[in-house]
């Protein structure tokens, strides 16, 4: 087997550990392994090079992705994917490991399905198959088919550390802090940070808010102050929405608290710092387990046509067909947009339960 590995979409700490595991396990299994630089864009542009054991040395503890990543517009077009197939064929590649979020795994699914057509039109064997295994790589933890995606734990630790750091200055000034986290369509980071950081209130996209949510939040903060806690934290996921579907701006939450309670309130938008830095031990281990499992899956069933994502559910490695991953991950967002919160949570799977 000749395997290409790439990282795509927003980077996530632990992607390097995943690439390392894929490369080294492939070599152990006697496969040739290639790196694709800058995600699907590198595939379109032909930036594909062989990787050896030492090329992935000293990266398990590094954030970002040494292969580079991109959100490629070219790859979204059929002609762009044709170029990508041409370049994979030039290297005799017949298996692809993609590490990324829902957009990246959708790209992998589309490519796997179109592969034979492209190969035929390029004059090759129309019966040929591209085996695809996806690894969930996203700090948002918004993918169906896994309890945790690579990078989410590191991002969560950044947020909790920031909340801990903010609490001393907040307490000194008796201030309330509003902390905005990433998470376009998923409140995992905000909710878990709220639990771990002792927040008074958390706003996430998955919660159906009634018209009185402001009052409930204000009441919770007022109660905490009455109980003698000098400072409070409110966590707002960037994807949180009002009942009418309009985004909740963290600045508006901050102003509201300050006005209604007449207290000193400050806003901290954590932004891309959440995606940076060294991966936690959990993310390194998760990435390594998933990377090894992806290659073993390819090695163990060479005859089967693989089009799966490898994930972790209840601490066990599981494989879910990419079609299901892609459809259910998209369906969650659609249900959220329609205001069907319960349905969205059911579709989300195990990452949000309990
Ligand atoms: O999907 C990961 C993510 O970090 C989201 O949480 C965030 O909304 C988005 O990427 C930011 O994207 P960019 O790095 O392109 O600004």
Describe the structure.
The strands form two sheets. A seven-stranded mixed beta sheet has the order 3-2-1-4-5-10-11, sandwiched between helices. The two termini are 41 Å apart. It is elongated, with a radius of gyration of 22 Å. Helix content is 44%, strand content 17%. It has 354 residues and is of the alpha/beta class. The chain contains eleven helices and eleven strands. The longest helix has 22 residues. 6-O-phosphono-beta-D-fructofuranose binds next to loops. One of its GO terms (molecular function) is monosaccharide binding.
Kindly list the characteristics that best describe this protein:
elongated; four-stranded parallel β-sheet; alpha/beta; 354 residues; 6-phosphofructokinase; binds 6-O-phosphono-beta-D-fructofuranose
Bound molecules: 6-O-phosphono-beta-D-fructofuranose
Distance between the termini: 41 Å
| Secondary-structure content class | alpha/beta
N-to-C SSE string, H for helix and E for strand: EHEHEHEHEHEHEHEHEHEEHH
Give the tally of β-strands: 11
Which strands sit side by side, in order, in the main sheet? 3-2-1-4-5-10-11
Cα shape: elongated
Residue share in helix: 40-55%
List low-confidence stretches: none
User: What is the radius of gyration?
Assistant: 22 Å
